[in-house]
Structure formats: C-alpha cells, structure tokens
Write a structure and sequence with these properties.
With about 375 residues, the chain is of the alpha/beta class. It is built from 16 helices and 13 strands. The chain starts with a strand and ends with a helix.
C-alpha cells in the first residue's frame, strides 16, 4: 500500500494526517507513506519528527477581496498543480488523502484528475472551502461532526461518513489517579485546565484575572497554558500572586494527556482537535471560539458541543472577567452538572475515530 497524505498550515490539519499514517503503518508495516506540505507550514517541523518523508510544494490561499496579489496566487496554484503531478507520478500512490489546508487542495485535486483514488478528512463542523470543493471530486469524505453533513454540496452527500477526529493514544489511555499523583494534585481539589490552543488565546488570558484570584482564594488546582507569545506579559501582570505546587502557569503544555486526565473542567478555544480530545475522555468544557477563523468554524464547533450538552460556549465578544468567573465556579461547584456534561461528552466523542477512518481507507484496497 502506497499512500500520500497532504494537509498543513495548522496542527489541526497535520495531526489527523499523522494519526492516519501511524494507523496505516500499524496495520500494514510494509506500506509506504509520503507527506506533501509547504515549507512555511507547521507540517515541515512536525512530520519529520514522526519519521515520515515529506515533500514540499508552494501554494497560498486566495484572498476574499480582488487584488493583484490574487493573480500571483493563481499563478502559484497552477504551478503547485504541476509540481503535485510530478510528485504523484514519481511516488505512484494507491491512494491520496487530504486533511485540510490549501496544500491539500492542489495535491488531492491533481490526484483525482489523474484517476487515483482520493479521500478527504474534514475536522470541523463547518467545512472549509478547500474541502467543500474537493468533496465533489474525491471518492470518499470523512467527517468529524454530523452538523457538517448539511454543509457539503449535494453531489458529495452519498460519499460522507462520520468518523470523528482521531485522538492520540496517550490521551485515551491516561489514568486520572496516576495523572493527579504525577502532577501533585490532592484528591480533594477541583482542577481547571486552561489552554487556548497551541498558540494560546490572548482573549482568554485577559479575562482570567477575577477567576485566578478566586481560584487562589478557594485553593483550586489549575494549569494555565498561556501560549509562548503571551507568557511573559501574563506572568508580569500577576507577579504579585503566590501559587502552590498544583497551581501552574506555563507558556506551552507539553503534557496534555496527564493534564486532561486530571482536570474536572477545561477552558479553551474551540479547535476541532482540542474538542475531540476532551469529548473522547469525557471532560466538561467551557469553550471560547476564536473569532475570524476561516468560515468562522470555531463558533460552529462550539455550538455543536454546546448543543450536545458537553460544553458551554462563550463568544469572544461576550467574554468578560465577571462572566467567565461566574461560569467557571458555577460548574466547579456543581458536581452533578459536571457529571451530566461528562456523560454527554462521552456520548458525543468518538474514541474509535482512527479505527473508523482506517476501515474506510482499507475498503478502498479490497
């Protein structure tokens, strides 16, 4: 089995591709896998760390307004199709899978035109422009939210399969008790995890002041991941506060698995992968969708979660210190509500997502 995987720009596009590659290699050790991305995307750093070969093309998304820069981007896109064709011919894959981002548009479209079997994986409740266009040409479409199905073109409706977003094994298998012991969190302490995505969220950081004071007052355990860009300012702003060993502020969270397993409540943005992780292990969430994301997809993700009963959505424009503090402690003080949200998340999440994805892929080779 020879497979090309293409997705990039953000971790939300790259990590699902990594999970798919790992599953294919687990089931078919002799399989050959090639990634195609851009040098500027996060995939150029992530993919080699997992031991996979990656080749690069140059492509950028089109701006919504008409200007000369779009003419240059069109020329770049046409060139990326020619480069994609060269890579595909040299590798000669049995299957090409796109996981989102502009780079996957060029690669999957060209593979489809060359008569190679193709598929895409959409991580969000509101499909991106690239995947909506590709869905008309590919052989199969894997989705992560049932809400997304009504947003695909009619021509693609018979290709849709709900698989969810794949979640890493270390997150699925982490023990709450062992994680709390490792993080030095006493059994009787409630724990809040704050993570505004890999880059952090300035809006969430700015709204945490009142909540932070009350958590210290009530001796709540917490881990706050500010994002590397915002860490120094956050520490400076709260330099007069004293924290216990189970009250941590970090620029970036390397050990997401243990912190998620230890948490009673998560506060974060509405990235598809983050939500897949919290729902898969049943952690209640307060989500603050980042404004101005493509197709406003984070807000659609957040509303899907809220409608399921597993989370509460606070839009950035409605976010205040008072509202955030009230929401956090209303939940932390209501164990029965947290339990109901946890159960709703376990029903909403998909622990077997990667198996569902692999089953669809494997059918293409029968």
């Amino acid at each position: 089995m020879k497979v090309i995987l293409s997705g990039g720009g953000t971790g939300g596009h790259v990590y699902p591709a990594i999970a798919i590659a790992n599953k294919i290699k687990e089931k078919n050790p002799d399989s050959e896998i090639l990634f195609v991305g851009t040098r500027d995307g996060i995939e150029s750093e992530i993919v080699p760390k997992y031991g996979y070969e990656i080749k690069f093309i140059e492509v950028k998304g089109f701006k919504r307004k008409i200007d000369f820069d779009n003419v240059k981007r069109l020329a770049m896109f046409l060139k990326s199709l020619r480069h994609s064709k060269k890579i595909i011919k040299e590798f000669n894959p049995d299957l090409v899978i796109g996981t989102g981002g502009y780079v996957s548009g060029s690669v999957v479209l060209k593979a489809s035109q060359m008569g190679i079997k193709t598929g895409i994986h959409e991580q969000n409740s509101f499909p991106g422009i690239t995947n909506k266009m590709l869905s008309k040409n590919v052989d199969f479409v894997m989705t992560s939210f049932e809400d997304s199905h009504k947003r695909f073109p009619e021509k693609a409706k018979n290709k849709l399969s709900l698989t969810g977003n794949p979640v890493r094994d270390d997150i699925l298998n982490s023990s709450r008790n062992e994680s709390r012991e490792f993080l030095d969190i006493p059994d009787d302490k409630k724990m809040l995890l704050v993570s505004g995505g890999s880059g952090g969220s300035e809006e969430i950081n700015d709204a945490l002041g009142m909540s932070l004071l009350k958590m210290l007052e009530e001796d709540i355990a917490f881990t706050i991941s500010t994002g590397r860009v915002y860490y120094d300012d956050f520490i400076k702003k709260h330099s007069d506060l004293e924290f216990k060993t189970y009250q941590k502020i970090v620029p970036y969270l390397d050990d997401m698995a243990r912190n998620l397993a230890a948490a009673d409540l998560v506060l974060g943005s509405a990235g598809a992968i983050s939500m897949a992780e919290t729902t898969a292990i049943g952690v209640p969430s307060i989500v603050v969708p980042k404004a101005y994301t493509a197709e406003n997809h984070q807000e659609h993700n957040a509303m899907s979660l809220q409608n399921s009963g597993g989370g509460i959505c606070i839009k950035e424009k409605e976010l205040t210190e008072e509202k955030l503090c009230e929401t956090i402690f209303k939940l932390l003080d209501d164990g029965e509500q947290l339990k109901k949200m946890s159960e709703a998340n376990l029903e909403f999440g998909k622990r077997d997502s990667i198996d569902l994805i692999y089953n669809i892929i494997s059918k293409e080779f029968k």
